[in-house]
Specification:
By secondary structure, the chain is α+β, with helices and mostly antiparallel strands. It has 2 domains: 76 residues, Winged helix-like DNA-binding domain superfamily/Winged helix DNA-binding domain (Arc Repressor Mutant, subunit A); 159 residues, Chorismate lyase, CATH 3.40.1410.10. The protein is built from 8 helices and 12 strands. The strands form 4 sheets. Strands 6-7-8-11-10-9 form a 6-stranded antiparallel β-sheet. A two-stranded antiparallel sheet has the order 1-2. A two-stranded antiparallel sheet has the order 3-4. A hairpin with a 2-residue loop joins strand 7 and strand 8. The protein is globular.
Length: 250
Amino acid sequence: MQTNSDVASPVGGTHLYKHIEQELTQSIHQGQYKPGDPLPAEKFLAQRFGVSIGTLRKAVDSLVGRGVLLRQQGRGTFVARHNKDRYLFAYFHVVRQDGVKTYPLLELALFTHTKADKQVAKRLDVGTGSRVFKLVNILHLHGRRVVIDEIYLPEKMFPDLTKSIVRDRPSTLYQLYQEQFGLTVVKAEERLRAVKADALKASTLNVPEGEPLLQVIRVAQSFNQQPIELRYSFVNTSDYEYFAELTPTA
């Protein structure tokens, strides 16, 4: 057993706790610990990896910060599961301007197969012309159409995905990815810009053509920084806005 000083010991140029973090991530990725499963006791994991409790805790803290693990007061630490509440608070950032946030009601407007253009291919890290699924969801908030989501998924990563599977899923898309295809979203990168509503988006969101919309471009990644979803969201901000709470990290 190593001492607390092993927290800063380099392994292959990486701090030891980072090495343990990678080992735990790989264990989750390989299905040794499944979504919703409790993490084994600290003593067991420390012995398994041959490190101190302090080093193990630092690795676990990092995974909690990344959203791979979740702590529940009085119960322990669990592998994150993408249920409805987790999606609403971690990945859905559109709120009414008075601060009220609600879970969107989804209307599946399109499910089709297409070929990735250069931008889609680049963001999904696939070849130009690769087969992808394209989904279009219309999100209703407080009885109004507020957001249009255009979603692209690499076909090779979602075998046998069908319109009925998407339409009839019991919870969120991220939970579907996780439970049916073994793909867990552990990170998402977003870029924001302003765009003008074309005729179709204007009609869908009931705004004038040319009206400014907020565009959110999100790339969702699984383990090993593998992109699994590209999402273009178009938001009518006349009564709604993008809100994200940022927590500084060391």
